[in-house]
Amino acid sequence: MRRSPVAVVALAVVALTVAACGGSGKSSSSSPASTGSSSSSGSGGAAGILSAIDTKASTGPQKLKLDVTVDIKGAPTNQQLALFTKQPIHLGVDGVVDSAGKSADVNVSVTLGNSPLAAEIRAGGGKSWIQIDGKWYDLPANALSSTTGTALPTGGVSTSNLDAGKILAAIGDPSKLLNNASVSSDKVEGIDSDKVSGDVNIDGVAAAAANLSKSLGNSTATAPTQAQIDKTAAELKKVVNKAHVDLWVGKSDHKVHRVAFTLDAAMDDATKKSSGIDSAVVTFDVTTVDASAPDVSAPSSVGTPAEFQAALVGLLGKVMGGAAGG
């Protein structure tokens, strides 16, 4: 992995993913998460809470709230990247998703400069719709397959193919992914939870990422050597100022109901010269709790395919205009 913004963002995604999916059933009193952790809430402190996480997929509707913000500073040499980094980018998702019932009703918002965009997406009964600027349109078949849990169109990947057991086995002890972990009590949508907070252990995440990549990738792929893993970790340490994770785990159901992640990176001289990027800050906050079934009623009227295409062109224009205008 080269010293690049892509590497830094990859660290953020992997760290967040493995933290949220933690719970291999292993724990170690000498693990980084145990160091400095508080046992005032939850059995066994941070390591005990992480190893007890229930990773079974939810079988009912889930209320989902997601907020992602990316703020990149500098003058990127990549013109396409430069267009979308003139100001912070924000993505928000808020609604209900039922993977088992293959239905969803969510609001999506994107903010680029002075042009905030908003849409509502609804799916159910094998059909899906999108609302843009107050008007509903039919969406093509399988357009929301990844959201509703069915197979993606040819050439895609089915979400059902992700083996949670295989992922957890590859990750190993989740407590080794956090340093200076602490535990406190908090609530998520009224659910009593243990809040585990800590800094990302870059060495542990680099090793977990390598194992996960091998586990989910081509079986004939060559596994990275320890020297390669160490090199990746060393390069990431040069640019990451802060990588902090907070997890809210239900005290009764042991499920992860919220994950918040902050990554603050300052590029080294070599990366600044090659990419033009000075720094990057990424925040990610996602909450999921049980909910009632989503509204999947069909809109009273929908636009024609031609009108939908025109709306998409207009939406793209807003995105490009907002990014360029800043």
Tell me what the structure shows.
This protein has helices at residues 5-20, 45-51, 79-83, 145-148, 164-171, 202-216, 226-239, 269-275, 305-325, and strands at 62-74, 89-98, 103-112, 115-124, 127-132, 135-138, 178-188, 191-200, 240-250, 256-266, 277-290. It is 30% helix and 34% strand. It has a domain at 5-57 and 75-87 and 164-291. The chain has nine helices and eleven strands. Strands 6-5-4-3-2-1-11-10-9-8-7 form an eleven-stranded antiparallel sheet. Helix 5 packs antiparallel against helix 6 and helix 6 (202-216) crosses helix 7. It is an alpha+beta fold and 326 residues long. Mean pLDDT is 75; it is low at 1-32, 34-43 and 146-162.
Concise summary:
The chain is α+β, with helices and mostly antiparallel strands and 326 residues long. It has helices spanning 5-20, 45-51, 79-83, 145-148, 164-171, 202-216, 226-239, 269-275, 305-325, and strands at 62-74, 89-98, 103-112, 115-124, 127-132, 135-138, 178-188, 191-200, 240-250, 256-266, 277-290. It has a domain at 5-57 and 75-87 and 164-291.
Give the count of helical stretches. Answer: 9
User: What value does the average pLDDT take?
Assistant: 75
Major β-sheet strand ordering: 6-5-4-3-2-1-11-10-9-8-7
> How would you describe the shape?
globular
Structural class: alpha+beta
Q: Major beta sheet, specifics?
A: 11 strands, antiparallel
Radius of gyration: 21 Å
